[in-house]
Amino acid sequence: MTTTRDIRESGEDPITMLTAYDAPTAEVVEAAGVDVILVGDSMGNAVLGHDSTLPVTVDEVQSRTAAVARATTEPLVVADMPFLSFGVSETDSVENAGQMLKQADADAVKLECGPHTVETTERLVELGIPVMAHLGLTPQHVNQLGGYHRQGTDSDAAAELLELAEAHEAAGAFSLVLEHVPANLAADVTAALEIPTIGIGAGPETDGQVLVITDVLGLSERTPPFAAEFGDVREEMTTAVESFREAVEDGSFPAEEHSHYESDVGDVY
Ligand code: KIV
Predict the structure, then answer these.
(1) What residue ranges define each of the domains in the chain, with the CATH number in brackets?
(2) Separation of CA 238 and ligand 1 centre (Å)
(3) How remote is the CA of residue 79 from the centroid of ligand 1, in Å?
């Protein structure tokens, strides 16, 4: 069983993290030996049919985190706190993050961070809720940022990001996701922190890498420029579904082996 302490003290071995939003996918991710499963609010785009993460609810993340936690034992399970479920009031932040551990069996929560989450991180950690911080491109700020653009691209923004990273480390975060930032900035932040950094679109010098599972599988309709497809599951699914339709239409499914006849069942007409 991977703990937040294992991640915090992971040393030289790169940390691997993937998202998963359901039990069968989580089982595959666990069997592949991935260290951390993030039940990301990316489920909004990846599997719930939204065009951003903003509509994702606490109940949705909670229910999918519970499915992932039931299906796995080894990886650390991190529940992503959805838009406005934290940082608005301390009571709501604690209540919502607490539900992820109490009801969904998550091991930790992730917060998309800014200056407003330093205190929240401190309070959650104080109460025993481990926090993974997330800086750089924070998709919950898409309306503020005017799109999904690379962040930390000038010296002021880079300095601000480093300062926030250090503040969240001091507040007790056990790791930090860096999304869509220059590789040299991610390298500098990684060097400045004791806690591990996990990059997505942040170059090779972070302590680990995370991607969205549907991108990795080749299931997403669109992938961000920094993601890579390691399979073609959309093609596989298309072939399977077309084969089913054809088999029903040509009468080859169900075959003898899929059917059961009972001699005791007489003519019911
Ligand atoms: O929601 C998510 O999947 C994330 C990762 C992309 C880091 O925040």
Answers:
(1) 4-231 (3.20.20.60)
(2) 26
(3) 10
